[in-house]
Specification:
The protein is an alpha/beta fold and about 650 residues long. It has 21 helices and 31 strands. The strands form nine sheets. It has a seven-stranded mixed β-sheet with strand order 5-4-17-16-18-19-20, sandwiched between helices. It has a five-stranded parallel β-sheet with strand order 7-6-8-11-12, with helices on both faces. The protein has a four-stranded antiparallel β-sheet with strand order 21-22-24-25. About 55% of the residues are buried. It binds adenosine-5'-monophosphate-propyl ester.
Length: about 650
């Protein structure tokens, strides 16, 4: 079943037909943190705006001298300043008397729970930092983190930041090979992992993949392992190299002074898919990133001291870095950290967590909303969701129907919705409503936040009139922006600043309506968005052709009513190879092995040939038309007009998983 085939519920249909806009509820406006005058202040002098916030909100060891040094496209924010990120996220809250405040309510998938206060966090981060020192990690080193959603994950990240080492967190759904590639690029010295985690009621092994990655990575000296599964999946430990977290961390003293670092000191690298086979190491530094995430967290989510905030993302993605770890902790927020899947043990698990912990602010992806929609209204209706006061959405365009379902069934028409547009590269939310200020329209991320200058331009880089579509660009630096691609300044310049000189090109299409509202239209490059996860078509293609049976492959994102896009692979096999369902299965397994289970193609079609231009370029646009069953677009540049018709004739036979 798909929600495309069934028509929306009558009340949603009515609201859609009305094309309604939603002003913030007056009671919300009266208490909102962010007021409209922030736009004026930031427009007047955006550097002064960020400088004021940096002085007010961050705790500095040395005050910064200059707000911004902009040698386009290379930005340095708050130069001359020093601070420590963990001192800002933990120590200062404990010093201010908030030691007993809960930092995280952790919920394990099997139902085990843990409450971690700021005092607990301070103790455990210092112990973990001392363990890193004992394992030879020093300021400036890189540490790879490959963990499930357990409390030790944010603790490990903070332990790195405490001693000025950079982390690179690799999502647990990536393969050993993907992990090894990132370790190699970052030259990481240590892997922090777990024996595994729980997912959909089953133990998921991580240690074996960490071992395989370590075997390919000469820079790795040790593996630090959290015991999460224990007897459910015993891990093998290599003496001398591998150490258990509970052996080494627990015996450390809980005193490890935070190392003050320069504002521009490397905080982390996070790899993301681009338009080539090699993921890019996005570089984020300390002060600007911390400011950008904490300010937007407080403004966009209207965070108050007694909020219980739940960002239901995985820390392995940027959403978790910025809005589970750094932004919320800098704001001394109480958060929920959930290990598992939304459907385990049942599809009301999330609503149960909201009820149990009295969650006030909930932030999730449209994919999850659409998956919940398929389960119907009864599950959320049976739970007490009255604690909720604000809802957020991130990761992909939210269709108006999903927006309205969220509004009616989760927000119960009481809660403003903030649809937040941003990226791994931007570090912080850039386009979003301010919940006490902005009238929202379902499906629009509304306007750039104070201090942010966004525009929609045509292929010449000229601003398009309101009502028209084009490319989304950013015209000014912002504090949490990426500082580059790790080790590759030329690629940074070419990828983001080369298409439209002087402007950051996000890779997204967008349109502004006649009221100036921004509507995000999805990627305009070869990047897919599958369930809010960014996956490169070219990365999947190169994994497929890496298999000996495959001569050529082309991958497109096929529109999907739940996951936004689904991966559709067209494969041409070598002359001596027979195609079969078994081979289709084997190719999917191969992609999972090379990249990770998240990149397995949902559809796989063997084709005798692929449509190419006369210069040999695969025409993915036509393949997308085929995958989505549309009339074919312009085929005049095809070298062989017949190929695409042959493929189309066979498209119905695509193997679907
Ligand atoms: O295409 C946009 C989409 O997700 C891309 C960024 O992906 P990633 O770096 O993985 O970060 C995801 C979480 C911040 C963007 O280029 N995207 C993200 N948020 C939205 C969105 N598309 C539409 N609306 C959004 N709110």
């Amino acid at each position: 079943m798909t929600n495309e085939q069934s028509s929306p519920a009558p009340e949603i249909e009515n609201l859609m037909a009305e094309g309604r806009a939603f002003p913030p509820p007056p009671a919300f406006v009266a208490q909102a943190n962010a007021k409209a005058d922030l736009y004026l202040e930031a427009d007047d002098d955006y550097e002064a705006f960020w400088a004021r916030l940096a002085r007010e909100r961050l705790t500095w060891r040395t005050p910064f001298k200059r707000t911004l040094e902009w040698d386009a496209p290379f930005a340095k924010w708050f130069t001359g300043g020093t601070l420590n990120v963990t001192e800002n996220c933990v120590d200062r809250h404990v010093a201010a008397g908030l030691g007993d405040k809960v930092a995280y309510h952790w919920v394990g998938e099997p139902g085990d729970t843990r409450t971690i206060t700021y005092a607990d966090l301070l103790r455990e981060v210092q112990q973990a930092a001392n363990a890193l020192l004992e394992l030879g990690v020093r300021t400036g080193d890189r540490v790879a983190i490959y963990m499930p959603m357990i409390p030790e994950l944010p603790i490990a990240m903070l332990a790195c930041a405490r001693i000025g080492a950079a982390h690179t967190v690799v999502f647990g759904g990536f393969s050993a090979e993907a992990l090894a590639g990132r370790i190699e690029d970052a030259q990481a010295k240590l892997i922090i992992t777990a024996d595994g985690g729980w997912r959909r009621g089953k133990p998921v092994d991580l240690k074996t993949a960490a071992d395989e990655a370590a075997a390919q990575s000469p820079t790795v000296e040790h593996i630090l392992v959290v015991r999460r599964l224990g007897d459910a999946l015993p891990a093998s430990m290599t003496p001398g190299r591998d150490v258990w977290w509970h052996d080494i961390v627990t015996r450390q003293v809980a005193d490890c002074p935070p190392v003050p670092v320069d504002s521009e000191h490397l905080l982390y690298i996070l790899y993301t898919s681009g338009t080539t086979a090699k993921p890019k190491g996005i570089v984020h530094t300390s002060a600007g990133y911390l400011l950008g995430t904490s300010v937007t967290h407080e403004m966009v989510f209207d965070i108050k001291p007694d909020d219980v905030y739940w960002c239901a993302a995985d820390i392995g993605w940027v959403t978790g870095h910025s809005y589970i770890v750094y932004g919320p902790l800098a704001n001394a927020t109480t958060g929920v950290l959930y290990e598992g899947a939304p459907d385990t043990p049942g599809w009301d698990r999330w609503w149960q967590i909201v009820e149990d912990y009295k969650v006030t602010v909930l932030y999730m992806a449209p994919t999850a909303i659409r998956a919940f929609m398929k389960q119907g209204e009864a599950l959320p209706a049976a739970r007490d969701l009255s604690s909720l006061r604000l809802l957020g959405s991130v990761g992909e365009p939210i269709n108006p129907e999903a927006w309205l379902w969220y509004h009616l069934n989760i927000g119960r028409e009481r809660c403003p919705i903030v649809d937040t547009w941003w990226q791994t590269e931007t570090g912080q939310i850039l386009i979003s409503p301010l919940p006490g200020v902005t009238e929202t329209k379902p499906g629009s991320a509304t306007f750039p936040l104070p201090g942010i200058s966004a525009d929609v331009v045509d292929s010449n880089g000229d601003s398009v009139p309101l009502g028209q579509g084009g490319y989304l660009v950013l015209k000014r630096p912002w504090p949490a922006m990426l500082r580059g691609i790790y080790g590759d300044p030329d690629r940074y310049r070419a990828t983001y600043w080369g298409r439209f000189p002087g402007m950051y090109f996000a890779g997204d299409g967008a349109k502004r309506d006649t009221d100036g509202y921004f509507w995000l239209l999805g990627r305009v490059d070869d990047v897919m968005n599958v369930a809010g996860h960014r996956i490169s078509t070219i990365e999947v293609e190169s994994a497929l052709v890496d298999h000996p049976a495959v001569a050529e492959a082309a991958v497109v994102g096929k529109e999907d009513p739940v996951t936004g896009q689904a991966i559709f692979a067209f494969c041409t096999v070598r002359a001596d190879v027979e195609t079969s369902d078994e081979l289709a299965h084997e190719l999917r397994e191969h992609v999972a092995k090379v990249i990770g289970p998240i990149a397995r193609p949902r559809y796989l079609l063997f084709t005798p040939d692929l449509p190419k231009t006369r210069s040999g370029k695969i025409m993915r646009r036509l393949l997308r038309d085929v995958a989505e069953g549309r009339a074919l677009g312009d085929t005049t540049t095809l070298a062989d007009q017949g190929v695409v018709e042959t493929i189309r004739a066979g498209a119905g036979r695509a193997d679907e998983e």
